[in-house]
Amino acid sequence: METKRILLAEDSENDVELTLEALSEYNIANNVDVVNDGEEAIEYLYRKGKFKDRSTSNPVLILLDLKMPKMDGLEVLKQVKSDDELKNIPVVVLTSSKIEEDIIRSYNLGANAYVIKPVDFMQFVEAIKKIGAFWIISNEPPP
Amino acid sequence: MKKANITVCIYSNREKVSDKIRDALKKKPCLVSVVRTADELENMLNDNKPGVLFFNIDFEEGTNVPVLNDTLHNHTDVTTILVLPAGDIHLNEIFEKYTVFDFVQEDELEPVLLEHMLERAIVRKTVGKGDYYEQLYRKSPLAIIILNADDILLEANEGFETLFKYSIEEVIGRDINEIAVPEDLLTEAGQISITTLRGESVYSETVRKRKDGILVDVAIYTTPIFLQNGEPGIYCIYNDITDRVVAETALARSEARFRKIIEGSFDVIYELDNRGRITFVSPTLERITGFKPEEVLGEEFGSLVTEKSVSKKEMVQIYRLFREGKPLEGFQTRAYKKGEPESRIVEINASPIVEKDVVIGSRGIIRDITKRKQTELILKKQKQELLKLNENLNAANTELESFSYSVSHDLRAPIRHIGGFINLLKKRLSEEEDEKSIRYIDLIDEAAHKMGILIDDLLNFSRTGRSELKWMKVPLEEMAKNVAEQFHTEIEERNIDFKIDDLPEVECDVTLMRQVFQNLLSNAIKYTRNRDNPVIEISNPMENEDEYIISVRDNGVGFDMKYKNKLFGVFQRLHSDKEFEGTGIGLAIVRKIINRHGGKTWAESYINKGATFYFSIPKDIARKELNHGNEKNPPR
Predict the structure, then answer these.
(1) What is the pLDDT of residues B371-382, one digit of tens each?
(2) Among all residues of chain A, which has the CA nearest to that of B408?
(3) Distance CA A132, CA A62 (A)
(4) CB burial of residue B497 (10 Å; 0-12, 13-18, 19+)
(5) Nearest by Cα to B17 from B108, B142, B119
């Protein structure tokens, strides 16, 4: 059986590392594919550019940072949720932004969850672990 | 009625009729004779002409109709009364056919009727004989007198009695100057007499004196006449013109008043005829155009502002308005003053003059609005400057918002990273048991954590200043209880004596007001931590006409009043972190929220005796200092 993949769209190398560190507790860090901006996320999802040879199936979860270079998270979210092939993939917005406007727009575009990265590391690890546990382990993805 | 002898002739061939007439008239002092035949009548009329003739006509026999015709034709000076047979006859026809004084039917020959008829006939006779003119003179509503050359009153009429209150008998033979002329007008009266006697008619409006001494305004008309004895005399008529004089005086006063208003007005007031030509313009015109009113009378409307300043097209439009009876409102143009290069800006208003639904012209005002225009220009410029400043301010605000945003996102991330990696590092270090390193690592972690909290606080603070206020009526008591509920664990554990008084219902933003209670309550709970019997009380200690005042009192550590100004500042603390943790943002947020509601915040305290924090909320929402931040959405 193919492993369930997670797509992490995050431009900050530090956040990538910390996120992977948190997920490693469930041994699911290896299932994470990382892209560093919105454009790459789209290329990944549509198997274009450097991902044109991607053989894996679509991810069961997208962890999406909002503020990214080139194409930002909201644009990626909009694209994903308006595509019949992709719209069933759960998208968790994972961001530092506490701005109400961002939260509202994310949900309006169809985000499945909105998580503000806690400043405290332990809380951050806790949050990531919970997300991983729920979406990867508990949640039954669409067929 | 003056009694006069008169001869009456009755022409009737029937005794019954003539007797009846004679009987009916027997009380009247008149001489009655009866004739039976046409010949007798003819003789009577020729020799002894009667004043009144009763002509008994007998249509059935028809014999005397020609006699009647002859009589009426030849003796027009005889007052003829037809005596007609009784019964149904066409009176109207007869009356039209024969020109008689009156008629009576044989069965109506009663004294009352005949006496009355006779009297009327006598009057007619008398008047006809020259007394008629005496009547005109005597009955005239004007006062008429006849004077001789020495101003002696020879005759006066009833009008004189009415006007001067003398009876005629009193004044005949007296000098008119003694009777009716006020002393100061004797010369003038004398002059009138002299001029009249010289042969000229005089008209004069002057004053005369009544018998009771009251002065009357009169118009005097005199004309020279010859008296009965052939001497020259004066025919003099007085007309009482008191009412007219009073009216004229009032009119003159009112006219003078309006003239003063018009002349004193800074506006030019004008009137035009229905062809747009100037019929009146006030002297103020000279101030604007340099022309005197008389120089432009009869000229075209455009002359009021000098022609070149109103275009032909505008002129046509204005005239159309005038013709259609519509007002001209706020028409602005330039006016050039004669001999001055600079123009003035004037505003012209006009409304139609309508008489009996026909527009006969228009009237209006021209106002020099140069100064107003200049002020408007200055104001406009100032407004533009303000707009520019506001634009700059908005730009600065926008910049501040994007700064907040980047603080939110960009500063939080590195802090998180520091904390994260420190934690990872610590895990590895503890295995090596380097105590000092672990201590440093803990301090760095703590510092990073603190910085994270500070950043979050700052963001919260800036958010309270920017979010849009949603006004609604909120019962504060319920809200305070609600907020207290969040702290119930601590309240119960520490056995805090917690009281909430009656609080008013106020207009406010629910979310922000809840934040106020939260911050004040959490402070009160925090700073009473060391008390054995902590007391916290939320109440409404006073209120005035304009605002509600709410207080949160505790018996905690309090603060030194000399620092009361620092209390509400951002990140201002009066205690060390060791004593009481915190960043010093709570009260700053309270002040900001209350300020946005138009209220004030203040506090009272004695060290170790607790503190009371107050805030006020205006009762009238209109007086509130509303959202001063700009309410744009933060940039993404």
Answers:
(1) 888 999 999 999
(2) A97
(3) 11
(4) middle
(5) B108
DSSP percent split of chain B into helix, strand, coil, nearest 5: 45, 25, 30
Q: Tell me what percent of chain A is helix, strand and coil, each rounded to the nearest 5.
A: 45, 15, 40
Considering only alpha carbons, which residue of chain B is nearest residue A67? B409
Edge-to-edge, what's the strand order for the sheet holding B547-554?
B497-500, B535-543, B547-554, B611-618, B601-605
pTM over cut 0.80: no
The strand order across the sheet containing A32-35 reads A32-35, A6-9, A61-64, A91-95, A113-116
Chain B residues with CB under 8 Å of A118 CB are 416
Residue B523, SS3? helix
Closest CA to B536 of B567, B599, B494, B570: B494
**How does pLDDT run across B592-607, given as a tens digit for each residue?**
899 888 899 999 998 8
Residue B309's pLDDT is 60
Nearest CA in chain A to B406: A97
A90 Cβ contact list (under 8 Å, min separation 6): A60, A61, A62, A112, A113, A135, A139, A141
d(CA B218, CA B593): 87
Q: Does A1 touch chain B (CB under 8 A)?
A: no
Residues of chain B with pLDDT under 50: 1-4, 623, 625-636
Query: What is B439-487 written as a DSSP string?
Result: HHHHHHHHHHHHHHHHHHHHHHHHHHHHSPP-EEEEEHHHHHHHHHHHT
Interface check for A65 against chain B (CB to CB < 8 A): the answer is no
Q: Which amino acid is at B266?
A: F
Neighboring chain B residues of A12 at a CB cutoff of 8 Å: 413, 417
